[in-house]
Amino acid sequence: MREFREGERALLFDAKGRQYLVTLAEGGEFHTHAGVVPHALLIGAAEGITVRSTAGARYTAVRPTLAQFVLKMPRGAQVIYPKDLGPLLVLADVFPGARVLEAGVGSGALSMTLVRAGADVVGYETRADFAVRARRNVLTFLGDDAAARFRVEERDVYAGIDETELDRVVLDLPEPWRVVKHAEAALRPGGILVAYLPTVGQVAQLRDALDDSRFGMAETMEVLQRTWHVEGQSVRPDHRMVGHTGFLTHARLLGA
Ligand code: SAH
Q: Domain 68-253, what architecture?
């Protein structure tokens, strides 16, 4: 068993299911409308502990999962949501040691998903401030050891890819068709390209570019996730669901 330590993140949730991400610090305090929780109550305790605030409200603490961390971490660019991160990992067929080029890096949600699955990731990101934040988010969640498998370069992927013999190229930016030729040269045969795109016009343009390339086996899909309300006899789909995030397109680099 590993107790909560100073410097770690804890996810606190209350009776209504509201969640708060807290960085534990010696002498730290978590303030809510329902009083104060001294971090000292959590440091040294096991995950799953329930504590009371000074006003008597109950909070339970666990370590955040990747999905929970992604939704609570500091974000500049829009992140890819957990419902799409999981499928993306399988469509890209990421494996430990896979050499992956990711562009753009944004807030690092996809980066931490790839690195955590064991990939060696090089990220290209045009915005210096996003590159810094992404790196901080990835190392915060995965620990400093992850630094050896995640590097971000401040550069424009439309201008080219320096890496060669890549296993995967994963894209979340507005004009991925401008990366197809570069990916063709940078991937090894059999390598996989995956692109996340919000609109169908973009998908059509990407698929045209893939048709004019050595990529084949192209497919486009969207992931619909419907959660359920389960309470006593009332078991039914929730009234609300996220209608749209983005389309996932994947293709494989084949021979000439
Ligand atoms: N997938 C990321 C979010 C990416 S948002 C996540 O899950 O957190 C898209 C990012 O692409 C932005 O940060 C933007 O600055 C970057 N970008 C746009 N065009 C680019 C280009 N040509 N080369 C590199 N990065 C680019």
A: 3-Layer(aba) Sandwich (3.40)
Domain with CATH 3.10.330.20 in the chain: 9-64
Residue with tokens 């929780």: 37
CATH 3.40.50.150 positions along the chain are 68-253
Q: HSE on the CB side for 219, CA within 13 Å?
A: 8
pLDDT at 256 over 80: no
- List residues bridging with 38 in a β-sheet: 29
Instruction: Output the CA 24–ligand 1 centroid distance in Å.
Output: 31
Q: Spell out which residues line ligand 1, taking CB within 6 angstroms.
A: 77-80, 103-104, 106-110, 124-127, 130, 156-158, 172-173
CATH number at 9-64 = 3.10.330.20
5-23 pLDDT tens trace: 999 999 999 999 899 999 9
pLDDT, tens only, 56-94: 999 999 999 999 999 999 888 899 999 999 999 999 999
Probe target for ligand 1 pocket from 133, 171, 173, with the most ligand atoms within 8 Å of CB: 173
> What would you measure as the largest C-alpha separation in the chain, in angstroms?
69
The best mutation among 72, 85, 125, 180 to test binding of ligand 1, ranked by most ligand atoms within 8 Å of the C-beta, falls on 125
